[in-house]
Amino acid sequence: MLFNSIVYGPIHSRRLGISLGMNLMPTDKKLCTFNCVYCECGWNTPALYPHLPSVEEVRTALEKKLIALQAEGVRPDVITFSGNGEPTLHPDFLAIIRLTCELRDRYCPEAKVSVLSNATQLGRPEVREALMLCENRILKLDSAIDETMRRIDQPLNPQLTVHQITQWLALFHGDFTLQTCFLRGRHQGNEIDNTTEEELRAWYRVVDELKPKQLMIYIIDRATPEQQLEKIPRETMERIAAPLREKGYDVSISA
Ligand code: SF4
Description:
The chain is of the alpha/beta class. It has helices at residues 55-72, 93-107, 125-133, 146-153, 162-170, 197-210, 234-246, and strands at residues 7-13, 17-22, 78-81, 112-117, 136-140, 177-182, 184-187, 190-193, 214-219, 229-230, 251-254. It has one domain: Aldolase class I (TIM Barrel, Alpha-Beta Barrel), CATH 3.20.20.
């Protein structure tokens, strides 16, 4: 499923409420530094010179939509950057977040600005600066074990490690939402399961190190590019959340 415009929706999000979507990636293909086996946008396709919208194109599209929503009396809860890939890859991401906050203040001041990110660009100071201008930074970590992270997320950079990602996440001092998709299955002959005891022990340890202000754990919901994946039952998700809730973490489950 690809979004064929810069602004889409609003849609009712399981996690965020009435959400106006923002897509800074190409409208005809996914562009991401991961190639997650469960990605609702499908597999990455090679793109030598992908067309990304300019800052002015984003401004025009968003302002037009916010004016139309205002006229209809629709008040978005959130303006959410996700779309066809990794939004922080846009070279003008900081400028776009600034203009989004400006337009939000003008047309729907109660809406929050959220970014769903796979966290691979957090080493760039301007990306961290942009994320800190938003109300919600929803940052992905699908496993605290390198081999599993690589099997699930298939990073384009084969050197990427969980340690590197958690070092970047630590720069937010807990002021973010940690997002993890739990799943089981197989891909290219390899077993995938980030719900085993070993996996959860490592993941809980990272959660305790990072102390995110919120956790969003979820299961696959729509069609996935890898067919051999199974949904984790709700009871298992509750069992995964329970020890964290006992410690006082705010854990939401989308299952
Ligand atoms: S990080 Fe998100 S957009 Fe990128 S491959 Fe994974 S699910 Fe898809």
